[in-house]
């Protein structure tokens, strides 16, 4: 069954970029300082923050240095039927 969302993949991608940039700035880290901590090149961080393009491994390294990687991994946990969002109008109406 298809999953429907009010957000596009591009919007979520932009939100993730904005979130990590805000975390970097809140931590008062320059791109250079984050590059040294994360082993992600400064040019790659700049590219990520301006074009939203980065390899998954680099994204995970940035997240690990700016947030809790376990929190991100938690998104892979299966949802219980009572916690998941409805995926159809029938599910909404049956609640």
Automatic annotation (TrEMBL):
Q: Which InterPro entries match?
A: Lambda_DNA-bd_dom_sf (IPR010982)
Looking at the record's lineage, which domain of life comes first? Answer: Bacteria
- Region called Disordered, residue ranges: 76-95
A molecular function (GO) held by this record is: DNA binding
SUPFAM superfamilies from the UniProt entry: lambda repressor-like DNA-binding domains
Q: What is this protein called?
A: Helix-turn-helix domain-containing protein
Q: Name the source organism.
A: Halomonas binhaiensis
């Amino acid at each position: 069954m298809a999953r429907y969302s009010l957000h596009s993949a591009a919007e979520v991608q932009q939100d993730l970029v904005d979130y990590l940039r805000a975390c970097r700035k809140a931590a008062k880290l320059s791109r250079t300082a984050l590059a040294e901590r994360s082993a992600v090149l400064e040019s790659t961080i700049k590219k990520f923050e301006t074009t939203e393009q980065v390899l998954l491994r680099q994204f995970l390294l940035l997240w690990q240095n700016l947030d809790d990687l376990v929190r991100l991994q938690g998104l892979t946990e299966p949802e219980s039927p009572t916690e998941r969002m409805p995926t159809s109008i029938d599910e909404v109406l049956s609640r």
